[in-house]
Amino acid sequence: MGAAVDYFYNYNLLIDQVKEHQMEIPEHEHFISYLAKVDYNSEDDWYFPTHVSKFKAKYGYYTDNFVKLDGKVGLHEFCAMWRTNFPIGNHLAIQPMFYGRLLHCENTPVILSIVMGGEWQGHYFEQQLPFAGVGYDELQWDKFFAAQLQAQYSLTTNNILQFRFAVAKDGDKYKDVMKGETMLGSSMSYSYNSPYGPIGLSLGYSNVTDKIYFFFNLGFVF
After folding, report:
1. What span, in angstroms and rounded, lies between the C-alpha atoms of 20 and 66?
2. Does the pLDDT at position 80 exceed 90?
3. How many CB atoms are located within 10 Å of the residue 77 CB?
4. Model confidence pTM above 0.70
């Protein structure tokens, strides 16, 4: 548990020319937040686990003057992730994962918005949520729920294949979550678990981006 002070200098925003996507972001922003987190991890490997589980949860309250945000009630954040492993024999493991993030705020600051995409949680942004088949970060609505099923097969001790299928729903309000389009994504990857970290290739596709995703990883992830 604790508190944090964050300052953001929004130098430039890369965005397309679609009118509905345009937004105004203050050049300077600061937030004072109160946080509570729990992080449980009993998995047997950081990158390629085959046994037991991992769980994370967080609650945050964000303000700009210790009490309110932009003169109104602050932003409430709830997020959680749970993954477990079911080994099948000596080579195969099935890994279901459930995760999501909920924001409650009248006008959510863009820098605190839900970000989806990439291979790992919290890679480019602290609030980043991974999604199979989406390589770049995508902004989502304030309520986001997702599930992923991964099959991991060890060809040898250090040569691993992974197949992922993910599904997600989002919405600005709870009643809108089931009305929007269901996001689907899948990927397959090969990795060699070297002494210097995983070396591997990933190939994926999702209906979010409607394009093939290719990723190459070299070494440990920071």
Report:
1. 33
2. yes
3. 22
4. yes
